[in-house]
Design brief:
Layout: E1 4-11, E2 15-17, H1 24-27, E3 36-38, E4 47-49, H2 51-63, E5 64-70, H3 71-77, E6 90-93, E7 108-111, H4 115-126, E8 130-134, H5 137-144, E9 150-156, E10 164-165, E11 177-185, E12 190-196
Parallel strand pairs: 1-8, 1-9, 5-6, 5-8, 6-7
Antiparallel strand pairs: 2-10, 3-4, 9-12, 11-12
Length: 199
């Protein structure tokens, strides 16, 4: 059965990126802290992690059938060149299809009719696998809508002070979670998974 999950590398004070798109060198340092290579679609994004972190990443890749991302992430990554770094299809929630891009391909889909339609499109693409919501406003919308089943934190020992929160613009708090139902210690990262308690 398809689960809706959300996850990201996050600072101790809850930010997935610092002010003005800063802090990535800290949030993703663990991507280069080991000797286990994770295959990606981009030579510019090498991932070499510890065996512990590799297990977490292998599970993510095996279990996730589609990501749902916002237009901002799509723009700053230039759509990962058309194919997500992990090779997983993605749906973009946006007001309009960007110039030079097809509305839909094997690897991506732009949904301009709202969050609910984007989730439906991602579920179709995911099949029996999970749908992963990008942290930030997309994760916040999912949690507020009551559709998020699990939250994965890749908790990094850095305090950014400001930036974009994991659940940016969240309404309806508090939300209660169970767990952690999984805890894995990597090198300068702790992978924590929680189950969302249904209201």
């Amino acid at each position: 059965m398809t689960k809706i999950t959300t996850g990201a590398s996050v600072s101790l004070d809850g930010f997935i990126v610092g002010p003005d798109e800063t802090g990535f060198e800290h949030l993703f340092q663990w991507y280069g802290n080991g000797d286990v290579h994770i295959e990606t679609t981009s030579e510019n994004v090498p991932i070499n992690v510890t065996e512990a972190s590799a297990g977490v990443m292998r599970d993510l890749i095996a279990e996730t059938g589609c990501f749902v991302v916002g237009r901002h992430l799509f723009d700053i990554t230039n759509g990962w060149g058309g194919v997500h770094t992990l090779g997983i299809p993605y749906v973009v929630v946006t007001h309009s299809v960007p110039d030079g891009w097809e509305r839909e391909s094997e690897h991506h889909e732009f949904v301009t009719t709202g969050f609910d339609d984007a989730i439906a499109a991602a579920k179709r693409r995911a099949g029996d696998k999970d749908v992963g919501l990008n942290a930030g406003t997309i994760a916040a919308q999912g949690l507020a809508a009551g559709i998020v089943d699990e939250v994965q934190l890749d908790l990094v020992p850095v305090v950014l002070g400001a930036g974009t929160p994991f659940f940016s613009g969240l309404t309806g708090a508090p939300y209660v979670l169970e767990g952690p139902i999984r805890s894995v210690q990597g090198d300068r990262v702790t992978h924590l998974r929680y189950r969302v308690v249904r209201r």
